[in-house]
Amino acid sequence: MASWASSFAQKLGSKEFRSYLMSTHFWGPAANWGIPLSAIADFSSSPEKISGKMTTALTFYSLLFMRFAWMVSPRNYLLFACHATNEVAQLVQLYRFVDYNGGIGAVVKNGGKMIKENADKKN
Question: Would you call 91 exposed, middle or buried from its count of C-beta atoms within 10 A (0-12, 13-18, 19+)?
């Protein structure tokens, strides 16, 4: 156990790890974690506040950047994990939005009008 801890401490103190911590390969994804954490925090809020268009845009955004994180060399696993988490969170939010607005048929049929009607009823 002590050898594992000392090996881990050596890796943390290495020049390569310090260089990684000072790169955009680390700080870009680290800053980006605010998006999925915010979506997860919103799971307990009312679904009437969810923007269907923004949630759909964030879903496609995360799909695009998951592919980017996988294809870039060297692979950016931290960015991939961030966008995979965001993808799941946004899909949950999109499900909540569709369920609140009467199902997929109603959302497709009425588009943005359904959102406005529900917002007007609440005020």
Answer: middle
Burial code (b: 16+ CB inside 10 Å, e: under 16) for 27-56 equals eebeebeebbeebeebeeeebeebebeebe
Asked if 29 contacts 82 with a C-beta cutoff of 8 angstroms, the reply is yes
- The amino acid that residue 26 corresponds to is F
pLDDT tens per residue across span 85-120: 999 999 999 999 988 887 777 766 666 555 555 555
Q: Where are the alpha helices (DSSP H) in 1-123?
A: 2-12, 15-21, 24-32, 34-41, 52-71, 77-100, 104-110, 112-122
- Of 95, 106, 109, 105, give the one whose Cα is nearest residue 52: 95
pTM of the complete model beyond 0.90: no
Distance separating alpha carbons of residues 118 and 116, to the nearest angstrom:
5
CA distances from 2 to 9, 17, 56 (A): 10, 21, 48
